[in-house]
Amino acid sequence: MFVIKNIFEKLGVFIEDNTIPILLITFLLVIISFQGAQYIGMASGTDTFVDKNSQLYQNYDHLYQNLFGTESIVIMIEGTDVTNPELLKAMDRAYESTVNIPGVIQVNSPSSIIKDANYEMTGRSEIPDDGEVIDEIISSSVPAYYLPDETHAIMSVVVEATTSDDTKEEILRETRTSVEMADFPGDYNVIVTGDPAFMVEMNEAMNSSMGTLLMISILLMVVVLYLVFKHVRWRLLPLPIVILGIIFTFGAMGYLDIPMTMVSMSAFPVLIGLGIDYAIQFHNRIEEELEHGTSDEQAVINTIKHTGPAVLIALIITALGFFSLFTSTVPMIQDFGKLLMIGIVMCFLASLFVGVTVLYGFHKISEKNILSKIGLKKQSSKKKVSVMEQSEHEPDFLEKALKGISGFSMKHSVLVIAIAGSLCVGGLYADTLVSIQTDTQTFVPQDLPALIDLTHMGEILGGEDQLNLIIKTDDNTDPELLEWIDEFSQHEVGGRSHIYGSNSIIDLIKAQNGGEIPESSAEVAALYEQIPDAQKERYLNGNSILLVNLEIGNAMSELGLMGIGDLSDIVEDDILWMAPPPGAEVTITGNSVVFVEVIGALTSGRTMMTLLGIILVFAGLLVIYRDLLKALTPVITMIMVVGWSGGLMYYTGLEYTPMTATLGALILGVGSEYAILMMERYFEEKDKGADPEQAMEEASVKIGKAIVTSGATTVFGFSALIASPFSITSNFGLITVIDVFLALLATFVIFPPVIVTLDKFKEKRRAHAAISRKSKLIDTRESNTIPEVITT
C-alpha cells in the first residue's frame, strides 16, 4: 500500500504541474468520443441473446434463418365486409405497390389470388365486380389465413429474416406509404403490424427511453448534490465530471462495436450513479485538505495520494464484482458487463485528472477574485491556526447521526451481527423461492402501439408461434422419408393439444399428386420440378435439408417459455419414439426454442454468478492488501446485503428477470466500494493513534458524509430507471435502489462491529504471539545460561 501511495503522490505532483495540458487533452478526447459515438448501433435480434458460436445459434441462424427464415410485415384490414369489391381493389393497389419495394421477396394478398382465379375463368386479370363470383372464388381458392372471417382480411409483405434492421425499417416505411396511397374505403381500419414492425418501434422506444432516462438521472443528481453535498464549494461540479466520463464511455462503445440493447441502455444511469461517487470522494477530500490549512499545491497532492489508492481499490473490486457478468452465455449481459467495466474506468480517470484539475483551478481563481478575498480573510485566518489551538467545528445532524449509529452498533456488536446474520440466512433461502418472469412480451411497454397491434393480430389469427424441425438427409426425394414426415406431422397435430397444425413440402406434393405421396424417388423429383421455386424453397434447401413447421398458435402467452420448453421436449421424445429413416437427422429449433434456452441461462445462472463475484472480490482484496482481515470484512458485509435482498424480493412479491438476475454481481460491485472506502479511512485514523472504536467513529464522521452523498446520488441515479417504460428496466431500477440502500445500511450498521471485532481479535492474537515469542526467547536464553553456571 505504501508503494501505491508513493505512485499516486508522484501522480499528484504531475497533475498539479500540468493543469493546462490535461484540460487540452480532455477537450481533444471529447471530440474523439463524439466521433466514436456515431458508430453505436441498436441491436435487438437473436444474436443479442445467443452466442454466435453456440450450437443453439448455429441451429437457429444457419440452419433455419439463413436457409428458410422469413419475416412478414402484416397488413390487417378490419371492416363490415372484407369481400367488398371496392376494398379488394384497394388491396390490389396496395399489392402492386408493395411488391416492387426493394428487399421484398413476396407479397401475399387475397386480392392477387382472386385476380389469378378470375383470369383462369374469364381471361381478365382483375377483381370481379360481382359479389357472388368473388364469394365462389374465395370458397374454392383463398386460404382461410388471408380471410379468417367476414370482417378481417390479411396481406403479408415477406422479407428475408437476415435482412438488416435498417432495410426492414425502410421496407416498413415504404409499406405504410403504399397503404396510404392505396386509398382504402374510409369505413375500414387498416393496421400495419407483424414482428418487423414491432421490432422497429421497440428500437425507437429504446432509443428515446435512453435519452429520457439520462435526463431524469441528471436532474435527480442536481437535486441530491444540492441538498446533501452542501458542505463543499461548487457542489454540482461532480455532475459534469461524471457526464464527461459517460461521454468517454459512449465513444469507447462506438469504437469497440458494442451495440445498444434492451439491457445495455440501462448501464448509463447506473454509471452516473456509480461514477459520480469517484468525483465526490476526490471533491470531498480536497475541500477537507484546504479547510485544514494545507497549501493549494499540497492539497492536490494529498488528495490524490490518499484518495486515489482508496478509490482505485474500490474500482478494482467493483470491476471484479462485475466480472462475473462475463460468465453469462447471453451476449447482451456480456455487453452490459463491458459497458460497466469501461464506464467506471472512464469515470475514475475523469475524476482523477479532470475533476481534481478543475477544482484546483476554481480554487485558484476564487483566491484571486477580489470580492472573494474579502470574504476569505477570516476563513484563512482560521485555517492557519495551529492544531493545538484549532477548535473543532460544530458537528451537524448527519455527522451526529452517523457517529451515533456506528457507536450503537459497536456497543451492541453481538446482537447486531446475530440479527443481521439471521436475516441473511433466511433471505438466502427465500431467494430460492423467488419466481422468475419469462414472458418476454411483459418486458416492453404494454401501451406500445406496435405491441397492441401485434397482440390484436394474434387474437384474430390465433398466433404464429412455431416449432421448426430441420431434417438433414442424403436424399430429399426419398419416399420413405416423406412418408415419415407425413405420419409424424399427423401424429403431433392429432396427439398434442398445443400443436394445431403443420406445413411442409408434403402439402405441396399431395396438392400436385391427388393427395398421395409417390412411391419412387424419380416421381418425387418430377413433382419437385413442377412446383414453383418460390413455394418449394420455403421447405427445401438443395438435396439435403427439409423444413417442417409445427404450428403452436399463441404458445408464448398461453404456455409461457417454460411450457414451450416442455412441449419441445415432448416433440423430441416423439422423434426418438417414431424415429426417422436411417440417414435422416432431425433438429428442433425456432424462435421460441431459442428464448427458452436464453431465459434459462439468464435466470438459473444467477447463483453461480453471485458466488463467483464473491470469490473474485475476496481474492482481489487478498491480493491487494495481503491481509485476511481487510479481504474478509467487506465481503462479509456484502454477503449480508445479498441475503437481505433475496428476502425482500420474496416477501414483496418481486420477480427475477434477465436483468435482475445480474443483481448479485451488481450489489457486490457497488456495495463493496462503500465498505472499502470506510475501511481505508478506519486504518488511516488508526495510524494516527486512535483505538479501534475511536478510529471507527472518526471514519464514520469524516468519510461517512461523502459515502452518504455517494450512496444518495447512486440511489437517485438508479431511481431514474424506475421511470423507464420498459418493465424489465423499471423493475431492475426499483430492486437496485433497494439494494443500494441496503448496502449503505450495512456499511454503517454491520461494517463497524465486524471490523472492530475482527481487528481486536487480530490484535489480541498478535499480542499473544508476541508474548509467546518473548517467553520462548527468555526460555532459550535461560537454557543457554544454565550449563555455564554448572561449569563454573
Automatic annotation (TrEMBL):
Keyword list, A-Z: Cell membrane, Membrane, Transmembrane, Transmembrane helix
Domain SSD: 244-361, 631-757
A Pfam family recorded for this sequence: MMPL
Compartments where located: Cell membrane
The keyword Cell membrane is annotated on this UniProt entry: yes
Bilayer-crossing regions: 20-40, 209-229, 236-256, 262-280, 310-333, 339-362, 413-430, 608-625, 632-653, 659-677, 706-726, 732-756
InterPro entries in the cross-refs: MMPL_dom (IPR004869), Mycobact_MmpL (IPR050545), SSD (IPR000731)
UniProt topology in membrane: Multi-pass membrane protein
Keyword Transmembrane: yes
Gene Ontology CC entries for this record: plasma membrane
This protein's name: RND family transporter
